[in-house]
Specification:
This protein is an alpha/beta fold. It folds into two domains: 4-163, 3-Layer(aba) Sandwich (Aminopeptidase), CATH 3.40.630; 177-262, Rossmann fold, CATH 3.40.50.10700. 31% of the residues lie in helices and 22% in strands. The protein has eight helices and ten strands. The chain has helices at 13-25, 94-111, 144-147, 150-163, 189-197, 216-226, 242-250, 259-262; strands at residues 4-9, 31-36, 52-60, 67-71, 119-122, 134-142, 177-182, 200-206, 230-233, 256-258. Strand 7, helix 5 (189-197) and strand 8 (200-206) form a beta-alpha-beta unit. Helix 1 packs across helix 4 and helix 2 crosses helix 4.
């Protein structure tokens, strides 16, 4: 059986909340637990033996929106102040991310957590730590009260235990197509909708605010480290970077589609 690392920070209340709920249900045979004292964005992946890593984390936002989120890791530009390395992206887990996102959305509704104001979304690629391993963050946001929310922790625990080993998606009976995304805001609303409604699984996503730093190398990393079969553009969300992104896409052999067209906008 393939093993997955489950990484927890002892100084992160959301991380500990989720782990507590996993242990209450039953820690999985496929999991290897790593507990670190440092913040999860700064831990050393070299201490992890497994090649696939699930990180349990809190999410912070200025808006303070209650949320259940997933995202991949990396820095498109020179700033590595929140972990990782400049201009380097981690490996990804697109199918697991899609599985998680769909399960979180369903459980958020069915459990009634949505009535408390919780939303489910897929964030764009950001922060560290860096590794060539395949990594995924799953998070509770966005305040101390939310990080300790028992139901939110249980929903994420159930999602991890139920969805990690599923090999393909279950949208309209088709296997998910692995893609990368370009454009739009940090919470990738249209890309999130696409995963929930159609058979797509996202690896790396570069938002509008990072397109200034996107170059041929980081673009190539997006594709190779996601195993992308297609490129999905938030065309409206590219703003002034449409020409730059179009030229980068022309240098690949991958199909390019617009998320607005896929969603029927």
């Amino acid at each position: 059986m393939e093993k997955f690392a489950i990484v927890v920070s002892e100084q992160d209340p959301a991380s500990l909340n989720i782990l507590e709920k996993i242990n209450a249900i039953g820690f999985p045979e496929w999991g290897a637990l790593y507990k670190f004292k440092e913040d999860i964005i700064n831990f050393d992946f070299n201490k992890v033996a497994e090649e696939k890593v699930i990180c349990l984390s809190r999410h912070k936002s200025e808006a303070g929106t209650k949320s259940l989120t997933i995202h991949h890791l990396g820095n498109f530009g020179p700033d590595a102040s929140v972990g990782g390395e400049p201009k380097k992206l981690c490996g990804t887990l697109p199918q697991i991310g899609a599985n998680y996102l769909r399960a979180l959305a369903k459980k958020n509704e069915e459990s009634g957590l949505v009535k408390d104001g919780f939303v489910v979304c897929m964030e764009v690629t950001h922060h560290g730590p860096f590794s060539e391993k395949s990594c995924l963050f799953i998070e509770i946001g966005s305040s101390e009260k939310d990080w300790d929310n028992e139901l939110a922790g249980n929903i994420i625990a159930e999602t991890i235990l139920e969805e990690t080993l599923k090999s393909d998606g279950r949208v309209v009976g088709k296997k998910d197509k692995v893609v990368i995304g370009l454009g739009g805001g940090h919470y990738a609303p249209d890309f999130t909708k696409l995963v929930l409604r159609q058979p797509y699984a996202f690896g790396h996503i570069c938002p509008k605010y990072a397109l200034d730093n996107l170059n041929e190398d980081t673009f190539a990393q997006m594709i190779s480290k996601s195993g992308a079969e297609e490129i999905v553009l938030d065309w409206k969300g590219l703003k002034e970077w449409k020409d730059k992104v179009t030229e980068l896409c022309k240098k690949t052999s991958l199909p390019v589609v617009r998320v607005q067209n896929l969603l029927g906008y």
